[in-house]
Amino acid sequence: MQHAGKTGHARLEDERLLRGQGRFVDDLDVPDLLHVVFLRSAYAHARIGKIDKSAAEKIVGVHAVLTLADLKEVLTCERLPAATPASAIHFHVDPCILVKDEACYVGEPIAMVVADTRAIAEDAAALIEIDAEILPAVTEIRAGLSPDSPRTRLDQPDNCVARWTIGYGDCESAFAKAAHKISASFELHKGGAIPMEGRGLLARPDPLDGVLTVWDSTQMPHRVKRVLVTTLGLNENQIRVIAPDVGGGFGPKGPVYAEEVAVSAAALLLQKPLKWIEDRYENFISTNQERDQYWDVEGAFDADGRLLGIRGTLLHDHGACTPSGIQLPQNSTTNLIGPYILPTYKLDVSLCLTNKTPTTSTRGAGRPQGTFVMERLLDRMAAKLGIGRDEIRRRNLIPADALPYVTQVLTRDGLPMTYDSGDYPECQRRALEAAGWHDFLARQKAAREKGRWIGLGLSNYVEGTGRGPFETASLRIGPSGKILVASGAASQGQGTSTMLAHIAAKVLGVRPEVIDVTCGDTHAIAMGLGAYASRQTVTAGNALHAASLEIAQKIKQTAAHLLEVSADDLELRDSFVQVKGVASMKKSFGEIAKTLSGNAGFALPGGMKPGLFAAVDFEPPAITYTNGTHLAEVEVDIRTGHIKITRYVIVHDCGNMINPQIVEGQVLGGVVHGISATLFEWIRHDAQGQPLTVSLADYLLPTAHDVPRIEIHHMESPTPLNPLGVKGAAESGTIGAPAAIVSAIEDALAPLKIEINQLPVTPQRLQKLIRKAQAGGSP
Amino acid sequence: MDERIITIEVNGKQYRLKVPVRENLADFLRHRLHLTGTHTGCEHGVCGSCTILLDSRSVRSCLILAVQCDGRSVRTVESLADAAGKLDPLQDAFSRHHALQCGFCTPGVLMTLVELRENADPSEINEDMIREKLSGNLCRCTGYQGMVDAALETLSRPDKRL
Amino acid sequence: MKAAGFGYHRPETMAELLTLLADLPDARIIAGGQSLMPMMNFRVAMPQHLVDIEKIDGLDSINLRDGIVQIGAMVRQADALASPVIKENCPVLADAIAHIGHQQTRNRGTVGGSLCHLDPASEIPLVCALLDAQLYIASRRGTRIMNFRDFAVAPLTTSLAEDEILTHIDLPICDPDTRHGFREYARRSGDFAVVAVATHLRFAGETITEARMAFAGLGTIQARADRLEMFATSQKLSPALIDKLAQEAAQMPAESDLHHDADYKRHLAACLLREVLERILRHG
Fold first, then answer.
1. Does A21 touch chain B if contact means CB atoms closer than 8 Å?
2. In terms of pLDDT, which residue wins out, C206 or A26?
3. Chain A contact present for B2, CB below 8 A
4. Which fold has domain C62-172?
5. Which of residues 59-118 of B touch A (CB under 8 A)?
6. DSSP state of B13
7. CA pair distance A658, A650, nearest whole angstrom
8. In chain C, ranges of CATH 3.30.465.10 domains
């Protein structure tokens, strides 16, 4: 495939952002703007009584102090209609718009202050007095699932919000006949998304046109609109949601939150423009995160190390509500299978409600944990059998000629999870070669002789991308000749506009810079979904591709009438349609559009249909699977437990690439997110459910100095599932990283026979394992 | 509310304004001067998104009060392009090396690198030094690699590049 | 996350400053603000008055005299790091400052601010403990000089009275008979130390005539490790002595915090001390 990018095309988004002319939501200002601060629960679990607002209301500059009772005037309901359907869920717990009488996590919004400035609103919020009766909190999932546990919410029967079994085949027989078995327990933590820009919105009611415009730092503006229509009881033409420049999303800006409804409702109630900008402290306590999963698993293998089955249990910390159903743990369970032949599988999954911030997907969305479990089982079995870690994988990888490969589990859309294209063994082979796998033993031996502990680890994984049900794109050319693209896709830095412009430009024979792309505006296009599941190139890209083809065809047909030639003799070049090889015989796109915009009373030429406008909803027939192999090389300082990643190599296959530079950017960012989840990020609470990591000084993100240079090699196995042959790339980097890094650490410390069963791998944790092993006698 | 009148030079322009004493420089630049290129990502001095140059030295503008900058000179990302609007070579290199994605941290990163350019000997600038200097700026999108490459290309002598 | 309200004062003379400190209730001095401002933005600190000492002359100089390096409280960490006087005469301080924060915070953060904030994991108090820095403290009542060990009461707590200000510190210069060492383990470049160790050994021939060893990050205040020093004094620096000192370091009192427990900190203290001493042994 001919690529854009690396050919001198800068991203369309770059120049504004580099000049400091981005328009993030806190950069927006409107006359008479007031600022909102939320008063949040200071307790993990408490019954909320009287709320005394009087002292706060007296502060100069305060316009209103609002509770749920005050907002009711403009609300149709008390909770967010957020639930994602899932039959496994016993009872849905939608987030409260503001707490009514029971606060269920530290950070849950209870009241809001509206004031002239944020600082004044914070002054006033500190003066609101709340009668709170502290209730026992559920803070640990094993205890939370026991019958005698206190309840996360007083009105629920227990804390087990969902329980199901995923699996297929006769797992018991597989284990009965297995030549080798292995069991392991893992405590896998994954942190938050922590985009550099938190959440935030500006809601402005306009009395002139009766439209409430909401600029919102969201991944899914159309979903926000849908929720606002429902909760505020307005019509679709009375709300416009715009995602302006968004400073990173990575998952948690997908779900709709209480603050988005509460601020919009308050703006309607007060008939004032209101802005709420989440600060970093709020981001740590009130934005959805991932946290803990506990896995107890067994693997059954034949004498040659081929998988016969995996069985076990998974406990998942769900937090205090169910805003996204069971998506996150479901991804963990299905992604465990990865690019391997797994004949039988049985995993009992239990989701525990806890008095902590709700958990939903962050980059990778549960998949890194599933991949981690599979990859650890393979490494451990390789060690047990005395075969290479590469060899055991080769014996279990799905061969290229078996694709498309139908697994025996279903995805959310109810279809069998089917790997559409790729060559997994070849991907691993190339990665091993690029990373010098076969020379590494000699290097490792030499290093060990010098007292240096180096190791090389690998992982293979797949990622389901391009999730449906659809995405929209439209293309319009008017008499000005300007090419206007709109899509329900939304960008948080992925370069979505550039990607779309490149797709349309190639079809229409123009430079991408001349195309004007509008993403994330509900007034620009009626329907849309937005950013989740690494999907927008697949869904919006193909939608726009189809729309562009339709317009290109119509331009040629119209020009054929005007120039009196056959449409087949025409070509599109630089916003003109011209007779091939005869540059003087041409019409501009603007002239074609003007012709098709009609003249009062006259017929359009050749019976053409009016206008140069096409809108396409692309419905992907199924999920398309990206895959990759990661190799991480590490050096461990056994005295401190410090882990330095010295080299990182990826072979990545996301089908055809529209713009390799953007793909690499996505993969790089994803890998560093994965490195971060493996070595640094850890959300901590005390036994009462108080969050302890609420600053960037206590919650660690890697700096430029903590990450290696990352080498990316590409394979391009086009998917048959869409005309562009493309797959997603945005989360893939994260999925393989924890497994590869831990494989490398265990390899470095192989003489000590250390097994790592917890994420993150902090220096303290690792050093204690090292000391324990040393005390045990080896090496 | 306690307020003061301050005189401050920002991007070569003199301002004389009344400010609440508790207003930090980042909020002053963003909301009073409408120079919104400087971003606030944490307001506790860790993320580096609000990095600006105060009398030519990089500082966290969330950790300094506007009133403390009375009589001083500030440069922000908005000062980097030349009078004709042409991008600074560093900005240009950022685009070519895909050193930015969402662009939120970018202005702070650029100002950190401008200080490095103005103070370090190009023959001493190598990848490790750039990574160390950038360790005060968090980015969640790029994995830093593009910015390191852009900085190497722009700030270092050719023999120090990869 | 905005600071609560406060009164702001920017005195231009020392006399004016001392009067403000004597008269204002609940006043906090702001130097570089790199610790105080985050606490104020989080509203963990909500002083009624903030006294900015940036305009006061004479607090930002670095001078060498009579075997002493004198450093003003308002000397920026970046300037201290770049100072040839400090590098030549008190290299252990230069080594330590290189580990503080990032360029942007060192450009604002001050030597005096770091001492007065007194985070138990911070580097400048460690060096002051090691070298028994003399601290000059002024108030309207007069000037007093105290040893760092009397200044540092507890983590985040100094013996400064409300009307007092630290103006400068004296550190002894490092002469040709002394060898210093500094080693820190932090999770990331620029983070506070998990544990840091600084040493200062004076030799007569191969014999240690004066041993100074101090630690930061153990959760207690930065202080010299008397017991270790006693073991080292009058001994030859040898692998056996290093083993002995490392074993002793692994027994030191330490407190667990959110991220690291006392056991790991003690282990690190022993490792880092060993590294520092082995390096001195190797390089003489």
1. yes
2. A26
3. no
4. 3.30.465
5. 76-78, 80-81, 87, 91, 94-96, 98, 100-107, 110
6. E
7. 19
8. 62-172
**Tell me, what's the pLDDT at A318?**
96
In which residue ranges of chain C is CATH 3.30.390.50 found?
178-283
Report yes or no: B113 and B90 within 8 Å, Cβ to Cβ: yes
User: In percent, how much of chain B has pLDDT > 90?
Assistant: 94
ipTM, two decimals, is 0.97
| Interchain contact, C102 vs B43, CB within 8 Å | no
How many interchain CB pairs under 8 A, A with C? 58
CATH numbers and ranges of domains, chain A: 471-618 (3.30.365.10)
CB contact under 8 A, B104 and A707: no
Q: How many CA atoms lie within 13 A of C93 on its CB side?
A: 34
Helices and strands counted in chain B (H then E)? 5, 5
CA distance A193 to chain B (A): 9
The CATH architecture of the domain made up of C7-52 is 2-Layer Sandwich (3.30)
pLDDT on residue B161: 63
Is some CB atom of chain B closer than 8 A to the CB atom of C102? yes
pLDDT-derived band of residue A9, with 50, 70 and 90 as boundaries?
low
In CATH, the architecture of B89-160 is Orthogonal Bundle (1.10)
Candidate from B2, B48, B63 with C-beta closest to C37:
B63
Q: What is the pLDDT of residues C126-180, one digit of tens each?
A: 999 999 999 999 999 999 999 999 999 999 999 999 999 999 999 999 888 999 9
Q: What is residue A79's DSSP assignment?
A: B
| DSSP state string for A711-725 | EEEEE----TTSTT-
Nearest to C1 among A281, A684, A706 (CB): A281
Which of A10, A24, A696 is nearest residue B104 as measured by Cβ atoms?
A: A24
| Average pLDDT score, chain B | 96
Identity of the residue numbered C281: L
Q: What is the per-residue pLDDT for A7?
A: 39
Rounded Cα distance, A231 and A228, in Å: 5
Flag whether pLDDT at A19 surpasses 90: yes
Would you say domain B3-76 falls under CATH 1.10.10.60?
Answer: no
Q: Do residue C4 and residue A123 have CB atoms under 8 angstroms apart?
A: yes
Chain C residues with CB under 8 Å of A281 CB are 1, 42
The number of residues making up chain C comes to 284
The answer for residues whose C-beta is within 8 angstroms of residue B6's C-beta and 6 or more apart is B16, B17, B18, B19, B66, B67, B69, B70, B71
Q: What angle do CA C18, C24, C25 make, to 5 degrees?
A: 135
Residue type, B76: T
Q: What percent of chain A is predicted at pLDDT more than 70?
A: 98
Extents of the domains making up chain B:
3-76, 89-160
Q: Going by CATH, does the domain composed of C178-283 fall within 3.30.390.50?
A: yes
Q: Is the peptide bond before A252 cis (omega within 30 degrees of 0)?
A: no
The pLDDT assigned to A92 comes to 85
Facing B144 at nearest CB: one of A11, A194, A704? A704
The arithmetic mean of pLDDT across residues A334-359, rounded, is 98
Is the pLDDT at A606 greater than 90? The verdict is no
Q: How confident is the model at residue A8 (pLDDT cuts 50, 70, 90)?
A: very low
Answer yes or no: is pLDDT of A6 > 60: no
- Whether residue B122 is preceded by a cis peptide bond, meaning omega within 30 degrees of 0, is no
Task: With CA atoms as reference, report the closest residue to C44 among A56, B28, A65, A694.
Answer: A694
